[in-house]
């Protein structure tokens, strides 16, 4: 009788442990549903906000008018539909793609480097990508077709050089998280100086265009930038989504990862290359937008889960909603003038970065 009771107790404890592990590492359907609902709400707010206000009901009807078999007639005028489909929606979709890309890239860098403060901006990856893009844009090398454009290619090379250099500095300094960040700061300063020098060599008109781009904006010419970024976001996002479980395994150390059948070096290489290419593609169409890759994964961790199985996919949703919401402020706060999106994200991200540093300092004492 006692043995049966003990066995029942052990089974109950094992079942409770199993449920706790599933809650910690499993994807919550409720969290995904809430994320999608927030994303849709922000999208509707963005599509209806601006100098020429559009009714939400009209936006709804215009969107459903394009869906086959729905049969809902648009209540917007021809001018309003032109504003919606040629200006608002391309900018909204671009902002969501850029925000989701930077959020996923930031979460991936934090996982692969085991550093909660890593993000494309702080590691110098954005600056390296920006330098490559400046060379392509400033000196007339923005040639290509569709996704096969020289600007993302040049941005990717700059991003890869920056992240490899930051890793080399970190290894030389003992591979500590602080050294990695300092290496990233050094790379960001170096590539920012290179950007300044390159811009000085341009004529006034081209230099003004490049500087405006560097501030971080979501200006679109129709759907061109969306089609340029979409293939990179889809392919690199899928690669990082598949490798999100690897990031959880890498947290326990290389030896333990090998014992579980994972090749740490290969996994790191794939994640770093995919995250760098994703960052470079985002930078090539939007300029330098700071701190999205830092703020978004931390929001997911604070509200939902610390597991990268959850953090990576939800960072795409939260990043898309976050940047779309920030873009509303960029378009409306100083209307009819417009603020660069990168300025607002820096105002939000810099205090958030300081708060994370403060929390880490006090948690370690």
What is the compact description of this entry?
By secondary structure, the chain is an all-alpha fold. The protein has helices at residues 2-25, 29-48, 56-65, 78-112, 125-138, 150-172, 177-200, 204-214, 224-242, 244-250, 254-259, 264-286, 292-303, 308-332, 341-363; strands at 144-145, 148-149.
Structure description:
With 365 residues, this protein is an all-alpha fold. The protein is built from 15 helices and two strands. The chain has a two-stranded antiparallel ribbon with strand order 1-2. Helix 5 packs parallel to helix 7 (177-200). The longest helix has 35 residues, at 78-112. It is globular. Mean pLDDT is 82; it is low at 10-22.
Structural class of the secondary structure composition? mainly alpha
Tell me, what's the shape?
Answer: globular
Largest β-sheet summary: 2 strands, antiparallel
Distance between the termini: 50 Å
- Number of strand segments: 2
Secondary-structure element pattern, one letter each: HHHHHEEHHHHHHHHHH
Could you report the average pLDDT, rounded to the nearest whole number?
82
Question: Would you identify the regions where 5 or more consecutive residues have pLDDT less than 50?
Answer: 10-22
- Report the helical percentage: over 70%
Tally of individual helices: 15
Q: What is the C-alpha radius of gyration, as a whole number of Å?
A: 22 Å
Identify the strand order in the major beta sheet: 1-2
Tell me what portion of residues adopts beta-strand conformation. under 5%
